[in-house]
């Protein structure tokens, strides 16, 4: 820490807690409390109940959660593949071409996600690329929105990668494909897992583009949360939100364990 004196460090810690708790922690704690509440007549929710979670266990929420997980997994895998491929290819490009490629991948992030959803809706509404009303267009939208994060993560990792490993393997007679699969990608594995976790988390929470594209038989959980809160079922929506957070954190925990093992290796 840049602050060396003990009173100054305490002041920094207190300032951090004062800023962190109201802005980040407290809203999440209120959502968790609301998910177990049956009424909200005072400052905080009250009336403890498990009804909302029982409704989730016996309702359509589990199917919506599975839909969100499958969408996020497919989008993360596609984004990681495309982003890694593009980052590796960008190493061989000139500075101007690389900047153009960077802008291309960052464009979906620079514009509102609802614009991305509308563009895909228009682009794939006619044969031979008719995807409207299918789960594939939702997965495609999520892939477009999160690929930039995978691309940037792998690009940053490549700039920090020591070229001596690659040069040593090539000097020993290894072919480029062998160097890529057995030397370069293993060294990039911690960054790849981090990018996959980020893409998964962003896809799990995506709503704007999904609202424009999802078919009736492919309903992700964020859409169901919006529908529940829109009709006034705030406590049920809070329980759905906690379920979404728990599922996302569980997957991210598994990804972090893979990343830790990859970094140790």
UniProtKB/TrEMBL annotation:
One of its GO terms (biological process) is transmembrane transport. The chain crosses the membrane at residues 61-88, 100-125, 137-158, 187-214, 234-255. It is found in: Cell inner membrane; Cell membrane. One of its GO terms (cellular component) is plasma membrane. Pfam families: BPD_transp_1 (PF00528). It is a multi-pass membrane protein. Belongs to the binding-protein-dependent transport system permease family. This is ABC transporter permease.
């Amino acid at each position: 820490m840049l602050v060396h004196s003990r009173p100054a460090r305490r002041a920094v810690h207190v300032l951090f807690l004062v800023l962190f708790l109201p802005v980040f922690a407290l809203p999440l704690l209120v959502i968790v409390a609301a998910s177990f509440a049956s009424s909200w007549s005072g400052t905080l929710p009250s009336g403890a109940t498990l009804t909302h979670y029982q409704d989730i266990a016996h309702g359509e929420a589990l199917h919506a959660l599975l839909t969100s997980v499958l969408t996020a997994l497919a989008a993360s895998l596609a984004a990681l593949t495309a982003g890694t491929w593009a980052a590796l290819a960008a190493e061989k490009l000139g500075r101007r071409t690389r900047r153009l490629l960077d802008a291309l991948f960052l464009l979906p992030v620079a514009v509102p996600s609802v614009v991305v959803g509308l563009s895909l809706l228009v682009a794939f509404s006619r044969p031979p690329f008719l995807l409207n009303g299918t789960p594939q267009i939702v997965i495609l939208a999520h892939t477009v929105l999160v690929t930039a994060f995978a691309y940037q993560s792998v690009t940053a990792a490549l700039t920090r990668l020591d070229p001596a490993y690659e040069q040593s393997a090539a000097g020993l007679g290894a072919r480029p494909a062998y160097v890529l699969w057995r030397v370069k990608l293993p060294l990039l594995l911690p960054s790849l897992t981090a990018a996959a976790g980020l893409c998964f988390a962003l896809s799990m929470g995506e709503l704007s583009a999904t609202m424009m594209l999802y078919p009736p038989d492919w309903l992700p959980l964020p859409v169901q949360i919006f529908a529940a809160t829109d009709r006034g079922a705030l406590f049920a929506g809070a329980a759905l939100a906690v379920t979404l957070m728990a599922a996302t954190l569980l997957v991210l925990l598994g990804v972090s364990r893979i990343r830790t093992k990859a970094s140790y290796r």
